[in-house]
């Protein structure tokens, strides 16, 4: 896990240096998921990274990745025991997945 996080941080820096917004958001999402998997103590940083990733994907109009970021945020909020925000993020993900015709994504968000 630490090696994966180290690699993701290096790639995040590389994406930021080259102004690769999509890559930056993908690495933020990866780091958010890694942080969340460590438990509640690491969730605040995971939350910030997940929100930033979701916002970048939204700006890039990449609805599939935005929905994936919302799923990650759902897990972060659930780990933090914030049911209201977890439900909101999951609902937003469902709307995006439905708009994309992605039934598997919808099921994952339920």
Strand content: under 5%
- Structural class computed from helices and strand pairing: mainly alpha
Written as H for each helix and E for each strand, in order along the chain, the element string is: HHHHHH
Quaternary state of this entry equals single chain
How many distinct helices?
6
Please report the distance between the alpha carbons of the first and last residues.
27 Å
Describe, in plain words, how this protein is organized in 3D.
This is MalT-like TPR region domain-containing protein. It comes from Alexandrium catenella (Red tide dinoflagellate). The structure is a single chain. The N and C termini lie far apart (27 Å). The protein is built from six helices and no strands. The chain has one domain: Tetratricopeptide repeat domain (Serine Threonine Protein Phosphatase 5, Tetratricopeptide repeat). The protein has helices at residues 2-17, 21-37, 43-59, 63-79, 83-100, 103-109.
SSE order and pairing:
Elements: H1 2-17, H2 21-37, H3 43-59, H4 63-79, H5 83-100, H6 103-109
Helix pairs in contact: 1-2, 2-3, 2-4, 3-4, 4-5, 5-6
InterPro entries: TPR-like_helical_dom_sf
Protein name: MalT-like TPR region domain-containing protein
Organism: Alexandrium catenella (Red tide dinoflagellate)
List keywords for this structure.
mainly alpha, Serine Threonine Protein Phosphatase 5, Tetratricopeptide repeat, MalT-like TPR region domain-containing protein
């Amino acid at each position: 896990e630490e090696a994966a996080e180290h690699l993701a941080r290096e790639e995040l820096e590389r994406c930021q240096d080259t102004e690769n917004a999509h890559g930056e958001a993908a690495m933020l999402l990866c780091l958010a998921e890694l942080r969340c998997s460590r438990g509640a103590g690491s969730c605040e940083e995971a939350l910030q990274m997940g929100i930033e990733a979701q916002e970048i994907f939204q700006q890039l109009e990449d609805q599939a990745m935005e929905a994936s970021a919302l799923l990650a945020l759902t897990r972060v909020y659930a780990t933090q025991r914030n049911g209201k925000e977890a439900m909101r993020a999951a609902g937003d993900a469902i709307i995006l997945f439905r708009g994309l015709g992605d039934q598997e994504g919808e099921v994952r968000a339920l």
